[in-house]
Amino acid sequence: MAEATRGLSFENRTVIVTGAGGSIGRPLCLAFAKAGANVIANDYGCSAAGQGSSGASAEQLVAEIAAQGLSAVADTHNVATDADKIVELAIERFQRLDIIVNNAGIITYGPVEAQEPGDIKRVLEVNALGAMALCHYAWPHMQKQKYGRIINFTSDSVFGMPSSAGYVLSRGAMLGVTKTLALEGQPHNILVNTIGPSAYSRMVSDVIQDLPPDQQEGFKRAFTGESNIPPLLALASEENTYTGQIWTSGNYAMGRTILGTVKEVKRLRTARDCLSAMTELMDKSRAWIEPQSIQEFLNFRA
After folding, report:
1. Which residue among 17, 150, 248, 296 is buried most deeply as judged by most CB within 10 Å?
2. What DSSP letter does each residue of 134-170 carry, written as one string?
3. Residue limits of the Ketoreductase domain (predicted)?
């Protein structure tokens, strides 16, 4: 883990990591603490589906960090309902808040007809609305200090993953809002990015259970939680200058996902015209751009 933080310092920075007890959250909290940060390790302690609660994982993690003479505080609030209290704790204990990593997430599996609206709502409240609430309550503090780094979590599942509609809905919600927050934050030196990490976890174990055993073992070995830490530290660092972007990580690699738009077809008067236009619009050689704002999108369309 020392290798991941080489050349980076988070001295006197305060960071909130939600889902701190998980496969990514735990090594990330350790890395931040070893690099000098004050860590708020938030974990409600629920199951992968969001049921039950126990703060044991956060408390055990903080005990481990404290044993090394490093700075961390355990927080067991539910980000879906008590995001304000998580921010309050950071300010009360360390008088500032510099970094948020919205890592907390739950998932329910099943075909769309089997997923009750209440189940989908619970996933959305944790994965998207809770993340947004943390941004909301942290924003005035970051504006005041003219500094902030926010990392929201998305997922490769936004490209389509059966039997997980609620989860995909929640992770897709973070794409556009990250770009919006980036535009609002830039004048205040608040940079906001989103990342889709890949790591073996309680969630992923259900997704890959139908793969051959050797492939499952290969995934476990390659896509560890630790293999996502270097990109997360880079995005959280003062040296990072990118904002409003969609990144990917896992297996000690980093990639970028784009939201693009192709040149529209105009002067369509009938449904038959539109059916023909669809073929043109699907042509991979058609002119396209990756807008960084609604204005860039409108300018391209014009």
Report:
1. 17
2. HHHHHHHHHHHHT-EEEEEE--GGGG--TT-HHHHHH
3. 13-198
